[in-house]
Amino acid sequence: MPYVDLDGIKSYYEVHGAGEPVVLLHGGFCTIELTQSQLDHLASSYEVHAPERPGHGRTPDRDGPISFEGMVTDTLAYLDAFEVGPAHVVGFSDGAIIGLLLARDHPDRVRSLVAISGNLDPGGFVEETSSEGAASDHQDAPDLDEWGIRAAYDRLSPDGPAHGDVVMEKLMAMWLSQPQIAPESLAAVRAPTLVMAGQHDAIRTDHTLLIAASVPGAQVAIVPGASHMLMQERPGLVNLLIADFLGATGRSPV
User: Fold this and answer.
1) What is the pLDDT of residues 46-103, one digit of tens each?
2) How far does the chain reach from its first CA to its final CA, in angstroms?
3) Residue 166: which domain range?
């Protein structure tokens, strides 16, 4: 299996297809497999890079907390290792946040951006009502079983199944306080941007619309009937939207 040393971490990655580079950034506690439909579709027209970050998939965790700043650094290290860029960036959830930060702070590395179900701050999550009638943050109880997310971690992680609780605790601590992206700071984004989310996403629709309104010239797509897992629930539509957007920023996909 392909690995690359990134700052002392044996990091797993896959590269498929040929053409302009696309970097596919998975969500928190996710693996490449949850973006497999998008990877396969894009690889017919692009060179798709799919790295797994520390503590995710086949890449071991590192000591210390997880942060978006650190994940941006890891992504830049991957791009440098393979001399990738500027690249189309397609990010889901945590990956969307990484993409927004890359496009804002490292504009020379991002040719275009598709940000799917990302948020600017913890207040962007939908609040759910518990059985006792109290509001609670949606992020407090991620469903790791319905989509096989925990099973994939247990099967693939070199740290072993028991370490999944450690990684989830780190992620939960990050999600409760990060990111902290000022909407006005996104005025610095120069890459063509598509902001996408599900109609019933864990991210509030008004928050998704705020992200799109804050990025100059950004397009927005709300996928009907879909949740936060829109890439798995409506893969055909999501793939069509991504391919059409990327085709408009460069050559048209075959």
Assistant:
1) 999 999 999 999 999 999 999 999 999 999 999 999 999 899 999 999 999 999 999 9
2) 29
3) 3-249
At 134 the pLDDT is 33
CA angle (162 as vertex; 161, 167 as ends), nearest 5: 90
In this prediction, residue 85 carries a pLDDT of: 83
Tell me the pLDDT tens digit for each residue of 197-239: 999 999 999 999 999 999 999 999 999 999 999 999 999 999 9
Q: What angle (nearest 5°) sits at the alpha carbon of residue 148, between those of residues 142 and 154?
A: 95
Asked whether residue 254 is assigned to any structural domain, the reply reads no
The total of structural domains in the chain comes to 1
- Four-residue CA torsion sign, 204, 206, 210, 213: positive
Residue with tokens 């890449």: 59
Whether 82 is in a domain gets the answer yes
What CATH number does residue 92 fall under?
3.40.50.1820
Query: DSSP assignment, residue 135?
Result: E
Are the CB atoms for 5 and 118 separated by under 8 Å?
no
pLDDT in the model for residue 253: 36
Q: Is the pTM of this model over 0.85?
A: yes
Place of tokens 């990655």: 13
Both structure tokens of 242: 């991504």
- How many Cβ atoms sit within 10 Å of the Cβ of residue 85? 17
CA dist 115 and 242 (Å) reads: 10
Which amino acid, 241? Answer: L
